[in-house]
């Protein structure tokens, strides 16, 4: 092995080792947030797959059983990614058994009937492709969980540290999937990517753990064991539509407490609904309604001054209106009105 190969092997192996350490770390800390078990298992199977790639490249005579285990581990990467993101971003109960057990059972049975040592061609031609396809399906399913974060970025809303974390996990796993399927010199690429990705996660953990903001891995604790049933979800959705029709948000002093009274529900329940179902804070939700109202006024009212238009949209100051409008639409109110007129 050349000196450059030795260096590459060292960093690639270190990347996989970092993944195993992170997996252990989140397993130990899972008692603070049970969803961390899914994250721990995700990092574990990801590390097993990466270890197989790296060691096989530098040692083609690697045991066939280890190669089979490494390839089989991929069948659980997608499900654990989906379960981790879904259980952290949705109030709907997710049954992990139907996502994990069938996938594991199928690949186990195939491994017994068609062991890699005797059916290498079948594995490389069909089985591995099917596993990667299943992984891709779960990447698509997981996208729904990070969609609210994408929307925050689109409207230039500041992200919470937990948003950055979820987005990093999703993007990292997706890039590794892309590398396995499209990159040349896969083991070289995966080794570098795994080291970079997992080192980045370690840095994030250290930064968030030492941050003065609320505990990073406990941000959802206030809602634990308090899931909203489907009937209540539907009722809140209907009542919220009525509140919008009445345009109660045009009152500059309209707040969470008043909204809860109007909807005849508790502040806690409304806050949970807005945070977990809509993926935003109550104040940002009201700002969105006010901006939509302002846009309609800009499109229909030509005699209103921009300052009075802001007040008519529910904003309590000209500066707040201008700043929020610009941040949300990317245009000033005057620019928006001009572009609409054209």
Biggest sheet details: none
Fraction in beta strands? under 5%
Shape: elongated
Low-confidence segments, ≥5 residues, pLDDT <50?
212-216
Q: Which structural category do the helix and sheet elements fall into?
A: mainly alpha
Structure report:
This protein has 14 helices and no strands. It is an all-alpha fold and 342 residues long. α2 runs antiparallel to α7 (186-209) and α11 (282-300) packs across α13 (318-329). It is elongated, with a radius of gyration of 25 Å.
Give the topology:
Layout: H1 3-28, H2 36-58, H3 64-89, H4 97-113, H5 120-154, H6 161-182, H7 186-209, H8 230-246, H9 256-263, H10 267-277, H11 282-300, H12 306-312, H13 318-329, H14 333-341
Helix pairs in contact: 1-2, 1-7, 2-3, 2-7, 3-4, 3-5, 5-6, 6-7, 9-10, 11-13, 11-14
Features:
75% helix; elongated; 342 residues; 14 helices; mainly alpha
Quick summary of this structure?
The protein contains 14 helices and no strands.
């Amino acid at each position: 092995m050349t000196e450059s190969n030795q260096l590459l092997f060292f960093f690639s192996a270190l990347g996989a080792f970092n993944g195993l350490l992170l997996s252990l770390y989140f397993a130990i800390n899972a008692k603070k947030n049970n969803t961390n078990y899914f994250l721990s298992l995700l990092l574990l199977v990801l590390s097993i797959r990466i270890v197989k790639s790296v060691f096989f490249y530098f040692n083609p005579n690697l045991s066939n059983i280890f190669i089979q285990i490494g390839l089989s581990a991929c069948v659980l990467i997608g499900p654990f990614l989906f379960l981790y993101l879904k259980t952290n971003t949705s109030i709907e109960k997710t049954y992990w058994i139907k996502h994990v057990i069938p996938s594991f059972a199928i690949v186990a049975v195939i491994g017994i009937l068609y062991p890699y040592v005797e059916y290498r061609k079948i594995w490389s031609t069909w089985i591995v492709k099917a596993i990667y396809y299943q992984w891709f399906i779960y990447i698509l399913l997981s996208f729904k969980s990070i969609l609210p974060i994408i929307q925050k970025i689109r409207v230039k809303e500041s992200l919470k540290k937990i948003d950055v974390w979820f987005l990093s996990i999703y993007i990292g796993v997706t890039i590794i999937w892309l590398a396995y399927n499209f990159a040349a010199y896969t083991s070289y690429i995966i080794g570098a990517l795994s080291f970079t990705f997992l080192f980045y996660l370690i840095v994030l953990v250290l930064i968030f753990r030492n941050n003065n903001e609320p505990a990073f891995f406990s941000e959802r604790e206030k809602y634990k064991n308090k899931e909203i049933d489907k009937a209540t979800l539907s009722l809140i959705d209907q009542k919220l539509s009525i509140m919008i029709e009445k345009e109660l948000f045009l009152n500059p002093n309209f707040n969470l407490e008043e909204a809860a009274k109007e909807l005849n529900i508790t502040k806690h329940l409304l806050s949970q609904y807005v945070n977990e179902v809509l993926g935003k804070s109550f104040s940002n939700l009201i700002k969105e309604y006010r901006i939509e109202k302002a846009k309609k006024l800009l499109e229909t009212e030509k005699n209103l001054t921009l300052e009075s238009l802001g007040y008519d949209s529910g904003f309590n100051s000209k500066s707040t209106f201008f700043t929020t409008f610009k941040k949300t639409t990317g245009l000033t109110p005057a620019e928006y009105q001009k572009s609409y007129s054209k």
